[in-house]
Amino acid sequence: MLFGNLIFLLGVPVAIVQLFRAYGGADVGARIRFLDSANLKARNGNFEAAIKAYQGILSTHPIAAGVKYNIALAFLHQNRTEDAAKMLEFTLADCSNYLPAAGLLADCYEKLGRTEELSALKSSWRIVEEAETEASDAVE
User: Fold this and answer.
1) Non-local CB neighbours of 118 within 8 Å, separated by 6+ positions
2) How large is the average pLDDT for residues 106-134?
3) Whole-number average pLDDT of the chain
């Protein structure tokens, strides 16, 4: 009987660890420490603290397009379009085919009136226009 149930006994510690990670064990076993807490700060509207936390992550992981994209989103929530555009440029430098960043950068350039950069971006990213169309269709 003990050997018949042994396989289930071995799975219990693993299940407990996974349960802890899923329900609040922020950053336990995460590849990028403190990312969960930074994202939580951003979701709660504490954008300045989120930006500082993301910048702390960048000090240990300097090539992280997703983290830089999150910083750009936080900047946009603070109406800091120029800073967001710069961060999105850094995002595309890390990951040159990051379509959401390219679409958002196009929006920033348009808001800032940077028509030369916008046309250069659109010519190098023909799919940016498609992404903008898809995004506007999703909103409707």
Assistant:
1) 106, 109, 110
2) 81
3) 82
Query: Which two tokens mark 116?
Result: 């030369």
Q: What is the mean pLDDT of residues 46-63?
A: 95
Tokens (6 digits) for 83: 């800073």
**Looking at residue 4, what is its pLDDT?**
62
CATH topology of domain 26-139: 1.25.40
Contact 96, 125 (CB under 8 A): no
pLDDT greater than 70 at residue 24: no
Distance of CA 139 to the CA centre of its chain: 21
Q: What are the DSSP calls for the chain, one per residue? A: -HHHHHHHHHHHHHHHHHHHHHTT-TTTT-SSTTHHHHHHHHHTT-HHHHHHHHHHHHHH-S--HHHHHHHHHHHHHTT-HHHHHHHHHHHHHH-TT-HHHHHHHHHHHHHHT-HHHHHHHHHH-HHHHHHHHHHHHHH-
Integer Cα distance of 110 and 123 in angstroms: 14
Domains in the chain: boundaries: 26-139
